[in-house]
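Please predict the structure of the following assembly.
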Amino acid sequence: GKKQYDREFLLDFQFMPACI
Amino acid sequence: EEKKTKEAAGAHPLPRWALWFSKNDRSRAWRDSLQLITKFDTVEDFWAVYSNIKLASRLSTGCDYALFRDGIEPMWEDSMNKKGGRWLVCLARQQRHTDLDRLWLETLLCLIGENFAEHGPEVCGAVINIRTKRDKIAVWTREAENQEGVLHIGRIYKERLRLSSTAIIGYQAHVDTAVKSSFLPKNKFMV
Protein backbone atom coordinates (compact mmCIF):
# COMPACT_ATOMS: atom_id res chain seq x y z
CA GLY A 1 0.00 0.00 0.00
CA LYS A 2 0.85 3.65 -0.13
CA LYS A 3 2.85 5.13 2.69
CA GLN A 4 0.81 7.12 5.21
CA TYR A 5 2.06 10.18 7.05
CA ASP A 6 0.08 11.96 9.74
CA ARG A 7 -0.37 15.72 9.65
CA GLU A 8 2.02 16.51 12.51
CA PHE A 9 4.75 14.49 10.84
CA LEU A 10 4.24 16.35 7.58
CA LEU A 11 4.09 19.75 9.28
CA ASP A 12 7.45 19.09 10.94
CA PHE A 13 9.05 19.40 7.53
CA GLN A 14 7.44 22.70 6.61
CA PHE A 15 10.26 25.01 7.59
CA MET A 16 13.10 22.56 7.36
CA PRO A 17 15.80 23.76 4.97
CA ALA A 18 15.98 21.62 1.87
CA CYS A 19 18.82 19.15 2.23
CA ILE A 20 18.55 17.47 -1.13
CA GLU B 1 16.27 6.53 -10.37
CA GLU B 2 16.05 10.15 -9.26
CA LYS B 3 13.51 9.12 -6.65
CA LYS B 4 15.81 6.39 -5.30
CA THR B 5 18.63 8.92 -5.01
CA LYS B 6 16.39 11.27 -3.03
CA GLU B 7 15.28 8.48 -0.73
CA ALA B 8 18.88 7.44 -0.16
CA ALA B 9 19.53 11.05 0.85
CA GLY B 10 16.83 10.77 3.51
CA ALA B 11 13.85 12.24 1.67
CA HIS B 12 10.41 10.89 2.51
CA PRO B 13 8.77 9.30 -0.50
CA LEU B 14 5.27 10.02 -1.79
CA PRO B 15 3.44 8.65 -4.76
CA ARG B 16 3.90 11.31 -7.45
CA TRP B 17 1.43 14.22 -7.38
CA ALA B 18 0.91 16.97 -9.94
CA LEU B 19 0.00 20.56 -9.06
CA TRP B 20 -2.05 22.50 -11.61
CA PHE B 21 -3.10 26.11 -11.98
CA SER B 22 -5.80 27.70 -14.08
CA LYS B 23 -7.34 31.10 -14.47
CA ASN B 24 -10.90 31.45 -15.64
CA ASP B 25 -10.90 33.94 -18.40
CA ARG B 26 -13.89 34.47 -20.66
CA SER B 27 -11.66 34.99 -23.68
CA ARG B 28 -10.54 31.37 -23.83
CA ALA B 29 -11.65 27.90 -22.95
CA TRP B 30 -10.96 26.79 -19.38
CA ARG B 31 -8.93 23.87 -20.65
CA ASP B 32 -6.58 26.20 -22.51
CA SER B 33 -5.79 28.07 -19.32
CA LEU B 34 -4.87 24.90 -17.41
CA GLN B 35 -1.16 24.72 -16.67
CA LEU B 36 0.87 22.08 -14.94
CA ILE B 37 2.99 23.85 -12.32
CA THR B 38 5.11 20.91 -11.26
CA LYS B 39 5.15 17.34 -10.01
CA PHE B 40 6.70 16.11 -6.78
CA ASP B 41 7.26 12.78 -5.07
CA THR B 42 8.75 13.49 -1.68
CA VAL B 43 7.51 15.29 1.44
CA GLU B 44 10.46 17.66 1.18
CA ASP B 45 9.64 18.60 -2.40
CA PHE B 46 5.99 19.16 -1.50
CA TRP B 47 7.02 21.85 0.98
CA ALA B 48 9.50 23.35 -1.48
CA VAL B 49 6.63 23.75 -3.94
CA TYR B 50 4.12 24.94 -1.36
CA SER B 51 6.53 27.57 -0.02
CA ASN B 52 7.19 28.96 -3.45
CA ILE B 53 3.70 29.50 -4.75
CA LYS B 54 1.13 32.07 -3.71
CA LEU B 55 -1.21 31.23 -0.90
CA ALA B 56 -4.67 30.53 -2.25
CA SER B 57 -6.04 33.61 -0.48
CA ARG B 58 -3.64 35.77 -2.54
CA LEU B 59 -4.78 34.47 -5.91
CA SER B 60 -7.04 36.64 -7.99
CA THR B 61 -10.66 35.87 -8.65
CA GLY B 62 -11.18 33.12 -11.18
CA CYS B 63 -8.01 31.21 -10.31
CA ASP B 64 -7.83 27.56 -9.31
CA TYR B 65 -5.19 25.26 -7.94
CA ALA B 66 -5.59 21.52 -8.32
CA LEU B 67 -3.52 18.71 -6.86
CA PHE B 68 -4.03 15.36 -8.56
CA ARG B 69 -2.32 12.02 -8.62
CA ASP B 70 0.16 11.87 -11.47
CA GLY B 71 -1.60 10.67 -14.59
CA ILE B 72 -5.04 12.08 -13.73
CA GLU B 73 -5.99 15.42 -15.27
CA PRO B 74 -8.04 17.78 -13.06
CA MET B 75 -11.19 17.58 -15.16
CA TRP B 76 -14.39 15.56 -15.22
CA GLU B 77 -13.54 14.12 -18.61
CA ASP B 78 -10.51 12.19 -17.38
CA SER B 79 -11.33 8.49 -17.34
CA MET B 80 -10.39 8.31 -13.65
CA ASN B 81 -12.82 11.10 -12.78
CA LYS B 82 -15.80 10.68 -15.04
CA LYS B 83 -17.67 8.23 -12.82
CA GLY B 84 -16.63 10.08 -9.67
CA GLY B 85 -17.67 13.09 -7.70
CA ARG B 86 -16.53 15.56 -5.08
CA TRP B 87 -16.87 16.42 -1.43
CA LEU B 88 -17.49 20.14 -1.64
CA VAL B 89 -16.74 22.78 0.98
CA CYS B 90 -18.19 26.20 0.16
CA LEU B 91 -16.84 29.16 2.07
CA ALA B 92 -18.46 32.45 2.87
CA ARG B 93 -16.68 35.46 1.39
CA GLN B 94 -15.16 36.61 4.67
CA GLN B 95 -13.62 33.17 5.26
CA ARG B 96 -11.05 33.86 2.54
CA HIS B 97 -9.07 35.78 5.12
CA THR B 98 -9.70 33.57 8.12
CA ASP B 99 -10.04 29.96 7.01
CA LEU B 100 -9.25 29.41 3.35
CA ASP B 101 -5.49 28.84 3.52
CA ARG B 102 -5.76 26.59 6.56
CA LEU B 103 -8.49 24.48 4.97
CA TRP B 104 -6.60 24.13 1.69
CA LEU B 105 -3.36 23.15 3.43
CA GLU B 106 -5.27 20.63 5.55
CA THR B 107 -6.75 19.23 2.34
CA LEU B 108 -3.32 18.90 0.76
CA LEU B 109 -1.93 17.17 3.85
CA CYS B 110 -4.82 14.68 3.88
CA LEU B 111 -4.03 13.81 0.27
CA ILE B 112 -0.27 13.51 0.35
CA GLY B 113 -0.38 11.85 3.78
CA GLU B 114 -2.74 9.21 2.33
CA ASN B 115 -4.93 9.72 5.37
CA PHE B 116 -8.05 7.98 4.06
CA ALA B 117 -6.76 4.54 5.00
CA GLU B 118 -7.87 1.72 2.73
CA HIS B 119 -10.08 4.10 0.75
CA GLY B 120 -7.14 6.35 -0.17
CA PRO B 121 -6.85 5.00 -3.70
CA GLU B 122 -10.39 6.32 -4.33
CA VAL B 123 -9.06 9.87 -3.98
CA CYS B 124 -8.02 11.37 -7.32
CA GLY B 125 -7.20 14.90 -6.20
CA ALA B 126 -8.44 18.18 -4.81
CA VAL B 127 -9.37 21.55 -6.27
CA ILE B 128 -9.65 25.06 -4.89
CA ASN B 129 -11.63 27.72 -6.77
CA ILE B 130 -11.21 31.41 -5.94
CA ARG B 131 -14.45 33.14 -6.85
CA THR B 132 -16.16 36.44 -6.15
CA LYS B 133 -19.20 35.05 -4.40
CA ARG B 134 -17.75 32.09 -2.57
CA ASP B 135 -14.52 30.18 -2.65
CA LYS B 136 -14.74 26.41 -2.90
CA ILE B 137 -12.54 23.49 -1.96
CA ALA B 138 -13.30 19.97 -3.11
CA VAL B 139 -11.85 16.50 -2.79
CA TRP B 140 -12.45 14.43 -5.89
CA THR B 141 -12.99 10.69 -5.70
CA ARG B 142 -13.21 8.29 -8.58
CA GLU B 143 -16.40 6.30 -8.02
CA ALA B 144 -19.54 8.11 -6.91
CA GLU B 145 -21.35 4.78 -6.47
CA ASN B 146 -18.82 3.55 -3.90
CA GLN B 147 -20.95 4.63 -0.96
CA GLU B 148 -18.76 3.06 1.72
CA GLY B 149 -15.59 4.61 0.39
CA VAL B 150 -17.13 8.02 -0.31
CA LEU B 151 -18.67 8.26 3.16
CA HIS B 152 -15.48 7.11 4.88
CA ILE B 153 -13.49 9.77 3.03
CA GLY B 154 -16.12 12.43 3.78
CA ARG B 155 -16.18 11.70 7.50
CA ILE B 156 -12.39 11.79 7.85
CA TYR B 157 -12.16 14.90 5.68
CA LYS B 158 -14.76 16.81 7.68
CA GLU B 159 -13.04 15.87 10.93
CA ARG B 160 -9.67 16.98 9.62
CA LEU B 161 -11.03 20.36 8.53
CA ARG B 162 -12.33 20.82 12.06
CA LEU B 163 -15.63 22.10 10.73
CA SER B 164 -18.23 22.69 13.39
CA SER B 165 -20.32 19.66 14.22
CA THR B 166 -23.37 21.42 12.82
CA ALA B 167 -21.69 22.12 9.47
CA ILE B 168 -22.72 19.83 6.64
CA ILE B 169 -20.71 19.07 3.55
CA GLY B 170 -22.17 17.44 0.49
CA TYR B 171 -20.95 15.03 -2.14
CA GLN B 172 -21.99 15.51 -5.72
CA ALA B 173 -21.46 13.18 -8.64
CA HIS B 174 -19.66 14.90 -11.53
CA VAL B 175 -22.35 13.72 -13.95
CA ASP B 176 -24.85 15.81 -11.98
CA THR B 177 -22.53 18.82 -11.69
CA ALA B 178 -21.75 18.74 -15.40
CA VAL B 179 -25.39 19.26 -16.36
CA LYS B 180 -25.83 22.99 -16.79
CA SER B 181 -28.57 24.07 -14.50
CA SER B 182 -29.55 27.14 -12.57
CA PHE B 183 -29.82 24.95 -9.49
CA LEU B 184 -26.99 23.63 -7.40
CA PRO B 185 -26.36 19.96 -8.11
CA LYS B 186 -28.04 17.67 -5.67
CA ASN B 187 -26.07 16.11 -2.87
CA LYS B 188 -25.70 12.39 -3.28
CA PHE B 189 -24.29 12.07 0.25
CA MET B 190 -23.85 14.40 3.21
CA VAL B 191 -21.74 14.25 6.34
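Chain B has a mean pLDDT of 93. The helical segments of chain B are 2-8, 30-33, 43-51, 100-112, 147-161, 174-178.
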